Amino acid sequence: MIDPSLQIWGWEIPVYLYLGGLVAGIMIISGYFLFSGRYRDSSVCSCFISPLLGLGLLSLGMLALFLDLEHKLHTWRLYTTFEIASPMSWGAWILILVYPVLLASMIIRLPESLKTRQGKIYSWLTRLSRVMNSLPMLVKNVGILNMLVGGTLGMYTGVLLSALGARPLWSSSILWLLFLVSGLSSAAALVHMITRDPGERVLLAKADNGFLTFELFVMAIFIVSLTSTSAAHLQAASLLLSGSYAPAFWVFVVALGILIPLLIQFLAVNRKIKHTSLAPILVLFGGLMLRLVIVYAGQYSHWLGSPHGNSISLF
Q1: Which of the residue ranges 4-13, 121-130, 242-251, 259-268 would you say has the lowest mean pLDDT?
Q2: What is the pTM for the complete model shown?
Q3: pLDDT-derived band of residue 68, with 50, 70 and 90 as boundaries?
Q4: How far apart (Å, rounded) are the C-alpha atoms in residues 70 and 74?
Q5: What is the pLDDT of residue 92?
Q6: What is the rounded average pLDDT of the residues 215-226?
Q7: Per-residue pLDDT tens for 233-264?
Q8: Residue 53's pLDDT is what?
Q9: First to last CA, the chain
Q10: What string of H, E and C letters represents the secondary structure of the chain?
Q11: What value does the mean pLDDT take over residues 57-84?
Q12: Nearest-CA neighbor of 87 among 147, 12, 175?
């Protein structure tokens, strides 16, 4: 039974976690394309527009996080120290690394609108881009940095919740992997929609099929681990399996977010049907719903004997 007096987070935290995971997946995919040299083989490689897209999405995620902060004017304090036991401290410094790595990726192939502009800054960026393209090893290292920082960002979005032991639904050592794989799947779906390279579209559809399949596997382990740990974890799992959040979990996350797009993309890569935007849109929707369900249901889960109405905060 849900306590109606329980105060929960709004939409900001799930959106922040979703966009963070999405950007993490974009960085890993873009980094792989840079590392593998695909940027030289294709003039329309998605790795040329992914960094700019990542910068925009991450900024939106940071805005959502900022809106949720209770003491907004004290945000700068996160960057005056580093607390090794604090997930928020780790997250703040990880995000500091993400921006320069994305900017370095963007400089490899500058947008045409920047190349044609006049001024010392634009001239300097153009020269830097030429130097980077003349050093394939440097571009490979930028790709490696993208994959490492992106992977760390994707894991952090799950660790942020699992570090809050006050809620048994989040108290899982595998939540970080679920969010990371979901972020990769969402990123593959988004890049699949925006890429102009037909070969890349097929490659990303195949990759997304793998991510979705693995996401189902991780999700099953996540649920089994909850149901076989303690009575509190079992009650938390029941919120997803048969409780108040079961319809949203089974319909929006599992069916619409994973199974249906997996079937559509399987038929598409085997040339049974044409590639469409339907499957990627469903995957993106399912990734967002996963965060919403986990965050909201997690706040209703509680340890046996503890009051339902305890408020919690990340910050």
Answers
A1: 4-13
A2: 0.88
A3: confident
A4: 9
A5: 76
A6: 95
A7: 899 999 999 999 999 999 999 999 999 999 99
A8: 93
A9: 28
A10: CCCCCCCCCCCHHHHHHHHHHHHHHHHHHHHHHHHCCHHHHCCCCHHHCHHHHHHHHHHHHHHHHHHHCCCHHHHHHHHCCCCCCCHHHHHHHHHHHHHHHHHHHHHHCCCHHHHCCCCHHHHHHHHHHHHHHCCHHHHHHHHHHHHHHHHHHHHHHHHHHHCCCCCCCCCCCCHHHHHHHHHHHHHHHHHHHHCCCHHHHHHHHHHHHHHHHHHHHHHHHHHHHHHCCCHHHHHHHHHHHCCCCHHHHHHHHHHHHHHHHHHHHHHHHCCCCCCCCHHHHHHHHHHHHHHHHHHHHHHHCCCCCCCCCCCCCCC
A11: 76
A12: 175
What pLDDT digit, counting tens, does each position of 129-178 carry? 888 888 889 999 999 999 999 999 999 988 888 876 678 898 888 999 99
Q: What is the CA radius of gyration of the chain?
A: 21
Backbone angles phi, psi at 184, to 5 degrees: -65, -45
Using CB atoms within 10 Å of the CB of residue 185, give its burial: 0 to 12 exposed, 13 to 18 middle, 19+ buried: buried
What's the number of CA atoms in the CB half-sphere (13 Å) around residue 189? 30
Residues with Cβ within 8 Å of residue 165, at least 6 apart in sequence: 171
Distance separating alpha carbons of residues 48 and 108, to the nearest angstrom: 8
Q: Which domains does the chain have, with CATH numbers?
A: 12-300 (1.20.1630.10)
Q: Can you read off the two tokens belonging to residue 224?
A: 């089994």
User: In sequence order, which residues have a C-beta less than 8 Å from that of residue 1 and are 6 or more positions away?
Assistant: none
Say how far apart CA 300 and CA 244 lie, in whole Å: 10
CA-based nearest residue to 314, from 120, 68, 33, 42: 68
Q: Give yes or no for a contact between 21 and 155, defined as CB atoms under 8 angstroms apart.
A: no
Let me know: does 134 contact 11? Beta carbons within 8 Å: no
Spatial distance between the Cα atoms of 197 and 51, rounded to a whole number of angstroms = 17
pLDDT digits (tens, 9 = 90+) for 275-290: 889 999 999 999 999 9
